Amino acid sequence: MFGLGLQELLVILVIALVIFGPSKLPQIGSGLGKAIRDFKKGVTGDDNEEAGKEAKKDNPKDLPR
Q1: Model's pTM, two decimal places?
Q2: What gap in Å lies between CA 15 and CA 49, rounded to an integer?
């Protein structure tokens, strides 16, 4: 992975822990994971299909009366 070994990843994790603190790391990790997921969806084009499904659900004309 990008030429990074276990030691380099551990050093990066320790630096992030010192800078952001233990309470912020889970929030940063989840935000980063969501950003990567959204980027992958945008690249593959799966986002358009899911957006269409959500738009149909949210359309008030499709609701039963």
Answers
A1: 0.48
A2: 40
